[in-house]
Amino acid sequence: SDHMENICGYLMKYTNLVTGWQYRYFVLNNDAGLLEYFVNEQSRHLKPRGTLQLAGAVISPSDEDSHTFTVNAASGEQYKLRATDAKERQHWVSRLQICTQHHTEAIGKNNPPLKSRSFSLASQGSANSPGVQRRPSQNAVSFFNVGHHRLPTGKRVPIMQPDHLVDVREMMSQAEGQQRDLIRSIECLPASGHLTSLDQDLLMLKATSMATMNCLNDCFHILQLQHASQQKGSLPAGTTISWLEPKISLANHFKNGAAQNFPAEINKPASVREEQSIAEPCQLTREPEEINPDEELEDISDDKEDDLGAVEEQRSVILHLLSQLKLGMDLTRVVLPTFILEKRSLLEMYADFMSHPDLFIAITNGSSPEERMIRFVEYYLTSFHEGRKGAIAKKPYNPIIGETFHCSWRMPKSNVATDAGATSSAHCPSEQGTLPKDPDGQAEPDFYTVKFVAEQVSHHPPVSGFYAECAERNMCVNAHVWTKSKFLGMSIGVTMVGEGVLHLLEHGEEYTFSLPCAYARSILTVPWVELGGKVNINCAKTGYSASINFHTKPFYGGKLHRVTGEVKQNMTNTVVCRVQGEWNSVLEFTYSNGETKYVDLTKLSVTRKRVRPLEKQGPFESRRLWQHVTESLRDGDIDKATEHKRALEERQRNEERLRAETETPWCTKYFLKDGDGWVYHKPLWKTVSAAQTQQTDSN
Asked: Which residues does the UniProt record annotate as the domain PH (predicted)?
């Protein structure tokens, strides 16, 4: 009680992925057991912007650095906070823990906890003791004795009261401690003998115990939602309860000593590979290179990712990796095993989203702002299906900083929809004026060309920039994406932070858009991908917008890969088109006039991209950079692929270390920093504007 003092002061609070960290004024109210925060000290007399009940909360210093800590309330709400230094963090953490303990014990005295489940681990003894020696018929899981209390027959489970949720939280805390003890016991087993720490059954037990704690946290949050609904009335008919992201941090989860780096196997590369001998980027020219589309050839590679063999063979490696990860852990710096990789770079994956260039070019042919917005939504929703290579979820290569990818598509003009929705090689006179004239007077080609370039502009955080244009139709798209991946138990979530802008120069319109989150599910069996989250598309000039929801599979009921959306005129708040269906199957568009259009993605024609041969590519172009990894994966030589991959990663770390020591900033090749985003160095809107200015001056 001597240390129960009210403290206040400024801390940085993590708000969201877009806003990031912001200074807020925090007040610890010991008497009420509350942590409150305000915009600033001057607004302290106003209503708090946020309040956390500290009874039953968990206060955890972060592993990220010496300044950050988290406050996880029993309600499931979490504050991620950052002090100015380690000393100030310790001051806040100690005071918060004292206050939390005081109010948690006060509730516990009035509401004694239920009897906890028994959980005992058989004594290990020495390596020769009977407790460790395993009979041939003995299963590894049976080595552990787990007892459960059953409810008396005929007794009904009472409705959960608010105070009982505190009991549940306490029982879950005990379960977390028991799970930590379980992992310690497994880790302490001998490296050889009948029962080792690498026994497949024990590795499975470690991985599934982590997933079980995640599921329990989800269930706990569902109980809270159920209690809230009972206060406000029952849930409406047809409501589904969805899977939830972890709401309660397993803050004191057992920390494995090798949590930062997980190599696929122990052996180091036998020799220095070609990847390490490539000159450092600072020794290469960083001047932008003009790629001639005539040098590019139609891509004939077809690396479908439908093979489960490597995943099946390496299951023990996956289990060992999962047993060392923590819920919510950022996987950006985690080295994942090679056998789960796709045979392409992430930069090339972004290019594959452009596999329907006919739909992309047709956007600008729309006769009205409404039709152009609807066409963009149609193109947007059809782009994700071809971006996946097969039904098995695998991970593209993490691009090396400075890595680039170039390609193009040729689309016959007769295959592009006109403003009437038909396909024709002729356009109206106003459109003909936008087409480039051959200076030699030769006939123009009967196809449109769409060029694409992508570059990895940052390593930490990993940010990619990509740009595509069709100069003949005066349209281009520029985007930057920061991929944030997190471990979610039996799945991995990837958040695509960033923004893209489509420019229709003929109409003076700009369409801003974002990307959905992606999830790799069932990573221990047959991994598959689903998309989730809400994205928005907006055109400020026309006042049209689109809202699209990618629905993840609900916990109870519902379908896979479902997507819904609507296109709206903001000024009149009128919905002009609705869309529903599956983003990898059939989409249904319903227009305001009652007409309906169906798009079967499985039957859409895919235009193969055109890529320069490897011998003409630069050393930092994706396919040449990763060629040895890709060839080894095609040959099924996982060890050799891992050696080449490690050589590339080690070279990148050495270069990054050298730049840090010499304080040399990284210079990008094709993209320039613009505020919080990245913009292509020579976008079409600049070249067209310059050409128009030059023409005006000459007149």
From this structure: 4-101
